[in-house]
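Session log. Operator J.P. requested a structure for one protein chain; no other inputs attached. Running the standard single-chain path with token output.
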Amino acid sequence: MQQVNVPGSLTAEDRERMAQVGIDLAMTSRCGSYLQLNQEVAHATCSESGIEVMSIADALEHYDWLKDHYWKVVAKDKDEVTKYVAAQKNPRGYVIIGRKGSKNILPVQACLFLGREQIQHVHNIIIAEENAELHIVSGCASGKHVGKGGAHYGISEFYVGKNAKISFTMIHTWGEEIEVYPRSAAAVEENGTFLSNYVCMQPVKKVQMYPTATLSGERSVARFSSVVIASPGSLLDLGSRAILAARGTSAELVTRAITRGGTIISRGEIQGNVDGTRGHLECRGLILKDGLIHAIPEIHGSVVGTELSHEAAVGKIAQEEIEYLMARGLSEEEATATIHRRIRVLTRRGGTNSGRNGPGWWSTRSRPGGCGTRGCWPPCGRSPAICLSPMRSGLPRTRTVPSPSGVARPSPSPTLWP
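Structure written below.
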């Protein structure tokens, strides 16, 4: 695998910050890579058959049909950010295309690095054609020395074809004076799956985004998962929206938020416009130092046959939960760290595509006697912060426990939660 062509201007510290957002410059665990420094494209390649990675300028030049996907699901005049990016004569950003039936085991990585005080603008297009599967890690970062005046304006358009899947994980490590404005939208066709994961745990001045997935194909699925920490002086105005526009579609919007003195506004909206649709919206927040977590969940059901739910919880760690873990051999510091880590871990969807809307599609809403954590079986009866089910916790267990499918599974070895 060819290594990423890294300019000599990058310092060791810059490389370390890239590594923090999941960028593997040696390409040992990636099948393709795109690297943009400020407004210069440094690298764009992919070794996986059927998958293309290129700059958006090259893609628009080579493929006339791409214009049908350019500013289609994100409108040029949506707001000042989109107007600014649309006005640029030389577009920057990447295009990733998964051709029909292609699949990558190792993910494609895309790095957008800001090394000086300027507005970095990008327009990205990601396409998974019929029966294709794309896994992408997007790492966005800035140099530690970049201060006031640095900003990132990012447009991303996703197109998930019939029976296709896109898994997109975006990790941010910006500076304390950087403002970030992603604008994203996805169109999902029949039996398609769109998974969007967002992680931001480092100080940043402001992040504002509200991605939207429109599920226009029957039995299509969207899931948005976010794990964020707001430091003092940070404003994280985040959210996601799912529009259930076809029968059998389902969506889940899950946020884990921690404030250490900053402000988090967690928005979410699910629209159930067609019979036979399901959606769940959830935000759980932890206040470690005086700050603000403001959850704004919205569900809109316009037909009889849609099932939508939402829940939100904000607070501190209960002393009884710390004492409960200490009684099982953990120190107070270990108990507190365990709960922190548990809150930050997002549960994963299990089951196959065929079972997403059936028994295998486990809701995160609380079940009688349970904590509401996916995979909590048998119900532990505790709070979501310290799920004590043998299938989820790392507390010592020696017995074999049943799974929801009825298949016996051995309990995990003693360890802290991942």
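Operator note: Residues 332-344 form the longest helix (13 residues).
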